[in-house]
Amino acid sequence: MRCANRSTFATKLLHWEYWPTWVIYFPVFFYYLFLSIKARSFFFFTATNPEMEMGGLYNCSKYKQLKSIPNTFKPITLYVAANSPWALVQSRIVEKKLDYPLIAKPDRGERGRGVALLRNAKQLAAYLQESRVDFLVQEYIESPFEAGVFYYRLPEEASGAIPSLVVKAFLTVTGDGLSSVEELIFRIPRARLVAKALLNRSDMDASEILPAGTKKILEPIGNHNRGTTFLDGNRLISLELLNFFDALSYQLPNFHYGRFDLKAPSKAAFTNAEGIKILEVNGVNAEPAHIYDPNARFFTGVRTLLRHWQLIYTISLQNRKLGVKPATLKEAWKHFKVWKNRK
After folding, report:
1. Which residues contact 246 (CB under 8 A, 6 or more apart)?
2. I need a labelling partner for 226 at 20 to 30 A (CA). Which of 19, 171, 217, 234 fits?
C-alpha cells in the first residue's frame, strides 16, 4: 500500500493535469484583476452570458440551459425538486418513457460531483432520499463517443468559432485471463488515483477476472476527476461542427461563450455533426479542456486560459455597448449567499 501511495504521489507530481486548481489559476487570477480594472467591474464576466446566473461562473442551473435546446439534440431530461415524493418521480419517469439505466446529476453541480449512473428504481429511490438539492434525471446515452466543444461568438459577429475540442476516453482496463479487476486497476496510474472510489462502488466486482483481451469500462461518467482522460481533439474541428454550434447558440438566449458536453454515435458522425446529444451547457466556468491532454504543457495551458479570459472580457465589453450591465456587488453577494445555503 505504501508503494502504491508513493506511485500515486509521483503521478500527481509529474503530470500537471492533476495539480490543484489554485496552482493552475494563480497567474490567471492576476490577469483577471487587470481585466477587472480595465472593465471597472469585478463582475464584468457576468455580461458575457447575460441570461446565465453570474454568466455561468458557478451555481448555474443546468436545466435552464437545456430547456432552450431542441429535443432532437438532447437526452430526455426530467427535473426533480429536492424532497419530491417517490411516487411522483416514478409517475413522471413513466410519463417521459425513461428506461434504466439513467443518469442523475445535481442541477447546480460542478466538476462531476454527485453524478451517478442508476441501473434500477431502487438506486434512483436511494439517490432521491440522499439528495438535498434539486437534480436532473437523464436518459443514458450509450454512444461510445463523448466530447466537449468549446464555442464562442462575439455579439457583433453573426458566426462564432470553436477554439477547443476535447475527446473523452473512459477509464478502461483490459483483461489478461489471470488478473483480477482490482489488480488491473493498480497497474494503471490514472486508475490508481481513483481506486478507492472505484472499489467502493456496489456494482464493482473487484475479484472479477476478465478474459484475455476483454475490455471493461470502470467509470462511465466522463469527468476528469473520476479517471477520464481528456484528449486534444482540435483536429476534429470541422465546418459542419461550426455551422451546427452556430445554429445551436442562437437557441440559447444571449449565449456567447461556453462549452457543450455531448455524446455522438461515433467520431465520424460527430465530425459531420450527426446524432449529437447535448448533455449540458457550461458558461464562463467552462475550460478549454483540451489543455489537460496528458501530453500538453503547463505553460501552454496557462497561456490558453489567459487568451480565453481575454475573450470573456471582449464579449462582455461588446455586450455592455449593447446595454447589458454586469452584476452589481449586491447581486453577486446575494447569489453567493444562495449558493452557500444550498451547499
Report:
1. 153, 159, 160
2. 234
CA distance 318 to 175: 54
Residue pair 273/162 in contact (Cβ under 8 Å)? The answer is no
Same topology for domains 1-22+61-75+142-170+219-311 and 76-140, yes or no? no
Cell numbers given for 341: 445555503
For every one of its 343 residues, what pLDDT tens digit does the chain have, with 9 covering 90 and above? 445 555 777 777 778 888 888 999 999 999 999 999 999 999 999 999 999 999 999 889 999 999 999 999 999 999 999 999 999 999 999 999 999 999 999 999 877 788 999 999 999 999 999 998 999 999 999 888 999 999 999 999 999 999 999 999 999 999 999 999 999 999 998 999 899 989 988 888 999 999 999 999 998 888 888 889 999 999 999 999 999 999 999 999 999 999 999 999 999 999 999 999 999 999 999 999 999 999 999 999 999 999 999 999 999 999 999 999 999 999 989 988 888 877 6
47/39 Cα distance (integer angstroms): 11
DSSP 200: T
1.20.1630.10, 2.60.40.3500, 3.40.50.970, 3.30.470.20: CATH of 1-22+61-75+142-170+219-311: 3.30.470.20
Beta-sheet pairing, 257-264 with 277-282: antiparallel
> What are the extents of the domains in the chain?
1-22+61-75+142-170+219-311, 76-140
